[in-house]
Amino acid sequence: MEFEPHTGDADLTVDDVHLGLGPDDQPRHLSPSSAGLYEQCPRKWRFRYVERLPDPPGIPALVGTFAHLVLEHLLQLPNGERSQEQARELARDLWPHFETETDYVALNLDDDGSRSFKWKAWQAVEGLWTLENPDDTNVHATEQEVQVLIGEVPFRGIIDRLDVVKEQLVVTDYKSGKAPDQQFAQRPLKQVMFYAAAIAELTGAAPLGARLHYLGQRTLSIRVTDHNLGAARRDLAETWTSLTSDANTDDFATATGPLCAWCPFLGACADGQAEVIERHRNGRVRADAPGLAVVTALAG
Ligand code: SF4
Predict the structure, then answer these.
(1) Which of 56, 70, 124, 176 has the greatest number of CB atoms lying within 10 Å of its CB?
(2) What integer best gives the mean pLDDT of the chain?
(3) Which pLDDT value is given to residue 182?
(4) Domain, as residue range, for 294
């Protein structure tokens, strides 16, 4: 299996705001990104949300954050005003504030680095036009916050965009990371199906579809049916049950695998370190994986 590390996705940062742990460290809400993180590795979830170990966003994630910001403002404009020139103007207006934000400052980029960052962000923004003409899009809402009980799961999240197609809602999310191969499309689509389940719960009507715009690459889309809506609800319920049970006993298992070599919490995780060392011994860790430096430093 071709392994691609997960980079350049701003959604984790956006949804994190809404996770919310109670004073007893019990989760109060489930968002698509926290559900995804828990499914990837329960211990990783604990490191991030309970121990709150640092996980500063890197350049790809922040490029995605800025591109999301520009597109959010662009798609709020009326049809007929969503041109690339307008997007450029918005990017120019939004940049002075963005470049003073802590996460961006922490990158400590020099002039060349900053130019390269802006170029990558613009490529992501411009990438929308390879997927659709934003001027033709019938936008219902952008950055739509949703909070609703789905079965017994307190769900919370932010949908990048809700469109209207054939008088029905369509959930649309932007991605600035690499689009997965078709055989791995189900996992990212699950995230937008969670949003579709939330919209169905809130409005009483199932959305027509859900889609992921991988900016500059391609769109993954799924038609919403009773069947896949039911699967999304069941997935959420199972994840929530398992997560709250782990939180009750404070017992979060490790799920070791190729992602350990890219895990920001590897330095705190003995199981992950053993996994990376073993994989490295067998030549199964990419040379640019940050985890190699972590295990080397720990060995020294
Ligand atoms: S290093 Fe691996 S096992 Fe440990 S928290 Fe990270 S992903 Fe999970």
Answers:
(1) 176
(2) 91
(3) 81
(4) 256-300
pLDDT surpasses 90 at 24: no
Closest CA to 229 of 174, 183, 171, 182: 171
Statement to judge: residues 272 and 188 lie in one domain:
no
- Please, are residues 20 and 230 in contact by the beta-carbon 8 Å criterion? no
In which element (H, E) is residue 214 found? Answer: strand 209-214
For the chain, what is the domain count? Answer: 2
Tell me the pLDDT band of 136, cut-offs 50, 70 and 90.
very high
Question: Residue 216 domain-assigned?
Answer: yes
Question: Using N-to-C axis directions, what is the helix angle for 111-126 and 84-98, rounded to 10°?
Answer: 140
Backbone φ, ψ for residue 141 (5° rounding)? -160, 155
CA 271 to centroid of ligand 1, rounded, Å: 7
In a domain, 268, yes or no: yes
Q: How far is the CA of 118 from the centre of ligand 1 (A)?
A: 32
| Residue located nearest, by CA, to atom 4 of ligand 1 | 272
Nearest alpha-carbon partner for 247 in 51, 53, 54, 46: 46
Torsions phi, psi of 217, nearest 5?
-125, -85
pTM metric for this prediction: 0.90
Nearest atom of ligand 1 to the alpha carbon of 42: 8
230 and 261: one domain? no
Report the pLDDT value the prediction gives residue 8, as an integer from 0 to 100: 37
Give which of 14, 35, 4, 22 is closest to 234, Cα–Cα: 35
